[in-house]
Specification:
Blueprint lengths: L1 H15 L4 H8 L3 H13 L4 E4 L5 E4 L12 H7 L5 H6 L3 H14 L5 H10 L18 H9 L1 E7 L8 E13 L2 E8 L2 E6 L3 E10 L8 H13 L5 E8 L3 H7 L4 E3 L9 E8 L15 E5 L1 H24 L2
Antiparallel strand pairs: 1-2, 3-4, 3-7, 4-5, 5-6, 8-10, 8-11, 9-10
Helix pairs in contact: 1-3, 2-3, 4-7
């Protein structure tokens, strides 16, 4: 409807400042000629809007003009009160800000819409975390946020899955993404996109150097590429193990990111069965750290991999003893 389009133009100009006519046309899916007609209609209704032609021209509101109109429909007001991914707000330290913002939106809503918005907030909840996803370690997003918003490079100490030692990387961040309750840093490393799980970042330092992103590339573009790479990988490797109870807490803490589901624990048995998921067979070598406190039940190729790795370690120690290193 034309009235909705006029209101959209008004709110875009109020938020963005000067906007080229062709950009407004693209956003609202109309012709540039229609945009200019809409501008004339807004001006005729008393809105101080004007257009400047030329290379750096565009459409703009008179400096200082503001409107308190929200322009929200009943469905739009309901949508704002469906709190998706509440954990994301908490991790970013924005829980209080979210509550304050929603109270302001409620106050600005037309009176007939307020009851529906309030009921929606109490009747609809979106929980983005997976069922039985395993305990998620706490993550510190503060330094990563600082780099993202200040457009600075980051130096990371990062431990890849299956590695015992962390590695150091200098990266150019595009932003942060919360996927099914797990936070990721999306960044370029040597001008190539790479994904970093935030719970594997051991330390992060914001550098003085300005970020060096690829021209015209945005966070959503990089995330789409990386998501496709992850989805096109071969299927994961499911591993079933049993763990001695005296090491269960440590096992769950160190393998939280690999847990396919929470163990079925009766609280009494000496051994507890758990199921893990790995990307590659070699990643299971981290289980050697638990020695005889963890036993792999399946699949056979994982048992063979661990046996070969253990034999290599034994041979190395024998050589060290013989050579007197």
């Amino acid at each position: 409807m034309k009235s909705d389009r006029l209101l959209s133009i008004l709110l875009l100009l109020q938020t963005r400042g000067r906007v080229p006519a062709h950009e407004l046309a693209d956003r609202l899916e109309v012709s540039v000629r229609t945009i200019y007609r809409d501008i004339e209609a807004l001006s005729a209704s008393g809105v101080p809007v004007y257009a400047e032609r030329g290379r750096h021209g565009g459409i703009e509101l008179l400096a200082g003009f503001r409107t308190d109109v929200t322009g929200l429909t009943a469905d739009e007001s309901r949508a704002l009160f469906i709190l998706a991914a509440q954990g994301a707000h908490a991790a970013l330290g924005l829980d209080a800000a979210l509550g304050s913002a929603l109270r302001k939106v409620m106050a600005a809503l037309p009176a007939p819409y307020r009851p529906a918005a309030e009921v929606t907030s109490r009747r609809i909840l979106v929980d983005a975390t997976r069922w039985k996803g395993g305990p998620q370690p706490a993550v510190d997003l503060e330094t990563l946020q600082d780099a993202v918003f200040a457009d600075r490079r980051l130096r990371l100490r990062y431990r890849h899955s299956g590695d015992q030692e962390a590695r150091t990387y200098t990266v150019d961040p595009y932003g942060l993404v919360s996927k099914a309750g797990v936070w990721y840093l999306v960044a370029d490393r040597r001008a190539k996109p790479q994904l970093f799980r935030v719970d594997r970042v051991q330390s992060a330092t914001v550098l003085e150097e300005a970020v060096k992103r690829r021209t015209g590339v945005e966070l959503a573009d990089v995330w789409e590429v990386l998501s496709r790479q992850v989805e096109e990988r071969p299927g994961g490797l499911d591993v079933t193990v049993r763990v001695r109870r005296d090491r269960l807490d440590m096992f769950l803490r160190l393998n939280a990111s690999q847990l396919a589901e929470l163990p079925d624990d009766d609280g009494e048995s000496e051994w507890v069965t758990a199921r893990l998921s790995y990307g590659f067979v070699r990643e299971v070598r981290q289980l050697l750290a638990f020695s005889d406190r963890v036993e792999v039940l399946s699949p056979p190729e994982v048992r063979a991999e661990l046996a070969a790795a253990a034999a290599s370690v034994t041979e190395l120690y024998q050589r060290v003893g013989q050579d007197g290193w």
